[in-house]
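Self-study notes.
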Amino acid sequence: MKFQQDYSKLLDPEFVAKIDGLDLKARLVVEGFMIGLHRSPYHGFSVEFSEHRQYMPGDEISRIDWKAFAKTDKYYIKQYEEETNLKAYIILDSSRSMSYSSGSISKYHYGSILAAALSYLMINQNDSVGLVQYSTKLDKVIPPRASRNNLMEILKSLSSTQPGNATNSAECLNLVSEKINRRGLVIIISDFFDDLQKVLTAIKRFRSKKNEIIIFQVLDKQELDFNFGRDSIFKDLETEEELLTQPYHIQKSYRELFDSFLKKLSVECGNNQIEYNLITTDQSYDKALLSFLKKRQKLY
């Protein structure tokens, strides 16, 4: 198949962004990832093959065993050993700062596709997955369930939401923590542009309840490099405050402060057994998906 021959393209954010429909984006990202996974040293993360069952309407054509069809002239689906069910919560920052983009893909757009792909991957593994979207409040809460209907509800919410309002990460994360009673996996996708100490305190509450945590800090590359070449007006997306400055005069100081911010988040996560991943919107999605599979394997 054409997609299989060029599977790496399905993990490229620029290519994925051009595809219509979040459900299709999620499916193609996951399928591209799984094809690449089986061609890599990480193939051991896939679940083990168990048996065949006859093809039923609604099954994915990609799961048909064509060798079995050649032998029997009947369609069969490959079934896999079910692993212990995981309950996962994907928490996506939907505040206005996530709308920033120096190119064609905003942080929110990237984060929503990542959340969709992770949801698709988990549902296919018979895991329960839920979604929380927040800004100054909890904008949407979808409880974890292991069903296609839940996946469709998650995709619908991700597709219909646009970043808005300011950020109140700490309070929102505390509210989510109060709702979680059963140990599970918490995935937080955000730029973490907020009071970092308060945010870290809130994240640690998840760990105190024995949850495993993966953090994806999604940033635009321009936020890391600060490579603006001429006088610019910078506008705070949440407060709308504006500042006129010469970027090259403050680039060094900016990078030092920003590096300190990133280091603090990374070190604190490491000290609390929280998996931290820095992702930029130009990076392929396989890094994030592989991080999830590694964490999932450690849980059982």
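Second protein, same conventions, sequence then structure:
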Amino acid sequence: MTTTLIEPQDPQEQGPKPEYPQEPIEPPGTEAEMTPTADHGEQTYVGSEQLRDRAALITGGDSGIGRAVAIAFAREGADVVISYLNEEQDAQETARLVRDAGRKAVTVGGDISDEAHCQALVQRAVQEFGRVDILVNNAAFQRTYQSIQEISAEEWDYTFRTNIYAMFYLSKAALPHMQPGGAIINTTSIQSYQPNPMLLAYATTKGAVTNFTKALAQEVAKQGIRVNAVAPGPIWTPLIPSTMPPEKVKSFGQDTPLGRAGQPAEVAPIFVLLASQAGSYITGQVYGVTGGDPLI
């Protein structure tokens, strides 16, 4: 077995720094529209069989953090169901990267705000792999507004149905198919701790994700299943230029201690830790990947 030596790098210089030459794009956005392109670990992530022959279901697995997690999981030996809304091209590219790692990839499009679709996602994973070992609740809906008055009741409801209800639907459906050693990992956000009023609906749901994680972890510990969350700070994904004001996009991540946005590849290793045996004594926790902004 060969070992790849990875030299330490200055984290301030490890990725592109603002200002970013990104033009606005229509939501939900695609990877091809990103300038600069995002790093999902395509050229850098090296696995070590930490998830050998495990079965994972990842929502929002087509792009951004979800794509980086899918790549990392596959290179660690897992088969992956990639759930996405309608970003077919991105989903197929993620699937190609999973298959290039020698693992099975299944793509399933559809809206996770619908309970029946969430149940069908889990059933598809069970049909393909016989079980669900790892559930990653990652997909989210986000929009920015200057005032609460601009947010419709319909959009408020849809934000909760996508970010909160789907996590409930999927966890409830997956748990009967999970064995001791299984893991649920939820993507929360620094917005759970430092909410931006422009992201009122999104930030509110992320606070709920954090509490859901901590409560469910206590319930299912007796089943030998762990539940944790990852709280990213500013990470360079299609969600950013497709939902935020252009002036915010250009300076995205500039006010962090490290002075730049993070890359999806810098988040994925935490998901691997929380999914693997290396995280066997970790449950009910929230891990920040924020460029130095504190979770308070």
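Instructor comment on the second fold: The chain is about 35% helix and 10% strand.
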